[in-house]
Protein backbone atom coordinates (compact mmCIF):
# COMPACT_ATOMS: atom_id res chain seq x y z
CA UNK A 1 0.00 0.00 0.00
CA UNK A 2 2.76 2.45 0.93
CA UNK A 3 4.61 1.68 -2.30
CA UNK A 4 1.51 2.43 -4.33
CA UNK A 5 0.98 5.71 -2.48
CA UNK A 6 4.63 6.67 -2.99
CA UNK A 7 4.41 5.92 -6.72
CA UNK A 8 1.23 7.97 -7.03
CA UNK A 9 2.76 10.96 -5.21
CA UNK A 10 6.02 10.87 -7.17
CA UNK A 11 4.70 10.06 -10.65
CA UNK A 12 0.99 10.91 -10.58
CA UNK A 13 -2.21 8.86 -10.80
CA UNK A 14 -1.57 7.99 -14.45
CA UNK A 15 1.47 5.97 -13.44
CA UNK A 16 -0.65 3.38 -11.62
CA UNK A 17 -1.70 0.30 -13.56
CA UNK A 18 -5.11 -1.36 -13.17
CA UNK A 19 -3.84 -3.93 -10.69
CA UNK A 20 -2.35 -1.28 -8.43
CA UNK A 21 -5.55 0.77 -8.42
CA UNK A 22 -7.74 -2.25 -7.62
CA UNK A 23 -5.28 -3.47 -4.96
CA UNK A 24 -5.28 -0.07 -3.29
CA UNK A 25 -9.07 0.18 -3.23
CA UNK A 26 -9.63 -3.36 -2.00
CA UNK A 27 -6.84 -3.37 0.60
CA UNK A 28 -7.14 0.17 1.91
CA UNK A 29 -8.20 -0.97 5.37
CA UNK A 30 -6.86 -4.53 5.43
CA UNK A 31 -4.65 -6.83 3.38
CA UNK A 32 -7.55 -9.13 2.56
CA UNK A 33 -6.55 -9.63 -1.09
CA UNK A 34 -3.16 -11.01 -2.06
CA UNK A 35 -1.29 -10.64 -5.34
CA UNK A 36 -2.84 -13.79 -6.79
CA UNK A 37 -6.40 -12.68 -5.97
CA UNK A 38 -5.79 -9.22 -7.39
CA UNK A 39 -4.47 -10.68 -10.66
CA UNK A 40 -7.50 -12.95 -10.95
CA UNK A 41 -9.92 -10.07 -10.35
CA UNK A 42 -8.21 -7.71 -12.82
CA UNK A 43 -7.88 -10.54 -15.33
CA UNK A 44 -11.66 -10.73 -15.58
CA UNK A 45 -11.71 -7.16 -16.92
CA UNK A 46 -12.45 -3.87 -15.20
CA UNK A 47 -16.06 -3.88 -16.37
CA UNK A 48 -16.64 -7.35 -14.93
CA UNK A 49 -15.22 -6.32 -11.56
CA UNK A 50 -18.28 -4.17 -11.00
CA UNK A 51 -20.77 -6.59 -12.53
CA UNK A 52 -19.61 -9.85 -10.93
CA UNK A 53 -17.28 -9.21 -7.99
CA UNK A 54 -19.71 -6.86 -6.33
CA UNK A 55 -17.17 -5.03 -4.17
CA UNK A 56 -19.08 -2.17 -2.61
CA UNK A 57 -16.06 0.13 -2.39
CA UNK A 58 -15.39 -0.12 -6.11
CA UNK A 59 -19.04 0.55 -6.88
CA UNK A 60 -19.03 3.59 -4.63
CA UNK A 61 -15.94 4.90 -6.45
CA UNK A 62 -17.71 4.55 -9.80
CA UNK A 63 -20.83 6.25 -8.44
CA UNK A 64 -18.67 9.08 -7.13
CA UNK A 65 -17.05 9.43 -10.57
CA UNK A 66 -20.49 9.62 -12.22
CA UNK A 67 -21.47 12.45 -9.93
CA UNK A 68 -18.22 14.32 -10.49
CA UNK A 69 -18.64 14.13 -14.28
CA UNK A 70 -22.30 15.12 -14.02
CA UNK A 71 -21.43 18.13 -11.87
CA UNK A 72 -18.72 19.10 -14.34
CA UNK A 73 -21.14 18.86 -17.27
CA UNK A 74 -23.75 20.96 -15.50
CA UNK A 75 -21.20 23.69 -14.76
CA UNK A 76 -19.71 23.77 -18.28
CA UNK A 77 -20.88 25.68 -21.32
CA UNK A 78 -21.63 22.80 -23.67
CA UNK A 79 -19.91 23.36 -27.01
CA UNK A 80 -18.77 19.87 -28.03
CA UNK A 81 -19.82 16.23 -27.43
CA UNK A 82 -16.91 15.54 -25.10
CA UNK A 83 -18.34 18.05 -22.61
CA UNK A 84 -21.02 15.51 -21.68
CA UNK A 85 -19.63 12.22 -23.03
CA UNK A 86 -17.72 11.06 -19.94
CA UNK A 87 -20.75 11.50 -17.70
CA UNK A 88 -23.09 9.82 -20.18
CA UNK A 89 -20.78 6.87 -20.85
CA UNK A 90 -20.28 6.18 -17.15
CA UNK A 91 -23.99 6.48 -16.42
CA UNK A 92 -25.54 4.73 -19.43
CA UNK A 93 -22.77 2.91 -21.30
CA UNK A 94 -23.21 -0.37 -19.41
CA UNK A 95 -27.00 -0.45 -19.24
CA UNK A 96 -28.59 -3.68 -20.48
CA UNK A 97 -31.63 -1.86 -21.85
CA UNK A 98 -31.76 1.06 -24.22
CA UNK A 99 -32.32 4.43 -22.58
CA UNK A 100 -33.25 7.67 -24.30
CA UNK A 101 -32.16 10.84 -22.53
CA UNK A 102 -32.70 14.45 -23.46
CA UNK A 103 -30.44 17.23 -22.16
CA UNK A 104 -32.07 20.67 -22.07
CA UNK A 105 -29.90 23.77 -22.42
CA UNK A 106 -30.47 27.48 -21.92
CA UNK A 107 -29.62 30.23 -24.38
CA UNK A 108 -26.05 30.42 -23.06
CA UNK A 109 -25.43 26.71 -23.64
CA UNK A 110 -25.56 25.55 -20.01
CA UNK A 111 -27.57 22.54 -18.92
CA UNK A 112 -30.91 23.32 -17.31
CA UNK A 113 -31.79 19.70 -16.64
CA UNK A 114 -31.79 16.27 -18.21
CA UNK A 115 -34.56 13.71 -18.40
CA UNK A 116 -34.67 9.97 -18.94
CA UNK A 117 -37.64 9.91 -21.26
CA UNK A 118 -37.70 6.25 -22.27
CA UNK A 119 -36.37 2.90 -21.23
CA UNK A 120 -36.80 0.36 -24.00
CA UNK A 121 -35.85 -3.19 -24.87
CA UNK A 122 -32.27 -4.29 -25.43
CA UNK A 123 -32.54 -3.26 -29.09
CA UNK A 124 -34.91 -0.31 -29.29
CA UNK A 125 -36.92 2.36 -27.52
CA UNK A 126 -39.92 4.20 -28.90
CA UNK A 127 -39.72 8.01 -28.94
CA UNK A 128 -42.42 10.66 -28.86
CA UNK A 129 -41.39 14.08 -30.23
CA UNK A 130 -44.34 15.58 -28.36
CA UNK A 131 -42.96 14.56 -24.96
CA UNK A 132 -39.42 15.64 -25.85
CA UNK A 133 -40.44 19.15 -26.89
CA UNK A 134 -43.14 19.57 -24.26
CA UNK A 135 -40.40 19.18 -21.66
CA UNK A 136 -38.23 21.67 -23.56
CA UNK A 137 -41.04 24.23 -23.45
CA UNK A 138 -41.64 23.52 -19.79
CA UNK A 139 -37.95 24.16 -19.03
CA UNK A 140 -37.79 27.18 -21.36
CA UNK A 141 -34.91 25.45 -23.14
CA UNK A 142 -33.41 26.99 -26.26
CA UNK A 143 -31.69 23.83 -27.45
CA UNK A 144 -31.47 20.13 -26.67
CA UNK A 145 -29.01 17.26 -26.96
CA UNK A 146 -30.45 13.83 -27.67
CA UNK A 147 -28.70 10.82 -26.16
CA UNK A 148 -29.23 7.09 -26.17
CA UNK A 149 -27.15 4.05 -25.41
CA UNK A 150 -26.52 0.91 -27.44
CA UNK A 151 -26.44 -2.17 -25.18
CA UNK A 152 -24.84 -4.11 -28.05
CA UNK A 153 -21.61 -2.17 -27.53
CA UNK A 154 -21.59 -0.82 -31.11
CA UNK A 155 -22.00 2.96 -31.03
CA UNK A 156 -22.65 3.37 -34.77
CA UNK A 157 -26.21 4.72 -35.22
CA UNK A 158 -28.71 2.58 -37.06
CA UNK A 159 -30.74 3.83 -40.03
CA UNK A 160 -33.69 4.10 -37.62
CA UNK A 161 -31.58 6.29 -35.29
CA UNK A 162 -30.71 8.61 -38.17
CA UNK A 163 -34.31 8.76 -39.41
CA UNK A 164 -35.58 9.56 -35.90
CA UNK A 165 -32.97 12.29 -35.54
CA UNK A 166 -34.02 13.86 -38.84
CA UNK A 167 -37.63 13.97 -37.65
CA UNK A 168 -36.65 15.56 -34.33
CA UNK A 169 -34.44 18.17 -36.01
CA UNK A 170 -37.39 19.15 -38.20
CA UNK A 171 -39.76 19.25 -35.24
CA UNK A 172 -37.30 21.45 -33.37
CA UNK A 173 -37.02 23.76 -36.37
CA UNK A 174 -40.78 24.30 -36.35
CA UNK A 175 -40.75 25.06 -32.62
CA UNK A 176 -37.59 27.19 -32.69
CA UNK A 177 -35.77 24.73 -30.42
CA UNK A 178 -32.40 23.70 -31.78
CA UNK A 179 -31.31 20.07 -31.74
CA UNK A 180 -27.58 20.42 -31.10
CA UNK A 181 -26.59 16.78 -31.41
CA UNK A 182 -27.62 13.17 -31.00
CA UNK A 183 -25.00 11.18 -29.11
CA UNK A 184 -24.87 7.38 -28.96
CA UNK A 185 -22.92 5.96 -26.02
CA UNK A 186 -21.50 2.57 -25.13
CA UNK A 187 -19.13 1.47 -22.38
CA UNK A 188 -16.04 2.12 -24.50
CA UNK A 189 -16.91 4.98 -26.83
CA UNK A 190 -19.44 7.48 -28.09
CA UNK A 191 -20.65 8.67 -31.47
CA UNK A 192 -21.71 12.24 -32.28
CA UNK A 193 -24.20 12.32 -35.13
CA UNK A 194 -23.58 16.02 -35.59
CA UNK A 195 -19.92 15.40 -36.33
CA UNK A 196 -20.28 12.29 -38.46
CA UNK A 197 -23.77 11.58 -39.80
CA UNK A 198 -24.05 14.24 -42.52
CA UNK A 199 -27.49 15.34 -41.33
CA UNK A 200 -28.65 18.90 -41.95
CA UNK A 201 -28.50 20.63 -38.59
CA UNK A 202 -29.75 24.10 -37.68
What's this model, at a glance?
With 202 residues, this protein is α+β, with helices and mostly antiparallel strands. The chain is built from 9 helices and 5 strands, in the order H-H-H-H-H-H-E-E-H-E-H-E-E-H.
How does this model look, in words?
There is one protein chain. The protein has 202 residues and is an alpha+beta fold. 48% of the residues lie in helices and 17% in strands. The protein has helices at 2-11, 18-26, 35-43, 46-53, 56-74, 82-92, 129-138, 159-175, 193-196, and strands spanning 99-105, 111-119, 143-149, 178-185, 190-192. The longest helix has 19 residues, at 56-74. The radius of gyration is 20 Å and the shape is elongated.
- Mean pLDDT metric: 83
Order of strands, main sheet, comes to 2-1-3-4-5
Ends distance: 54 Å
Put simply, the count of helices is: 9
Structural class: alpha+beta
Q: H/E series, N to C? A: HHHHHHEEHEHEEH
How can the largest sheet be summarized?
5 strands, mixed
How much beta, percentage-wise? 15-25%
The low-confidence runs, each spanning 5 or more residues with pLDDT under 50, are none
Rg (CA only): 20 Å
Helix content: 40-55%
**Would you count the extended β strands for me?**
5
Shape assignment: elongated
Amino acid sequence: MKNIEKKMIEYGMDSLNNSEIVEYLLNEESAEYGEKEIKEIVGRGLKNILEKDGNIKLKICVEFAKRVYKESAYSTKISKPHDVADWLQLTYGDKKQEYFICIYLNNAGYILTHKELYKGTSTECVLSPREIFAEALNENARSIILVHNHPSGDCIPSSADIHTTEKLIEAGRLMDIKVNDHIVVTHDEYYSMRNKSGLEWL
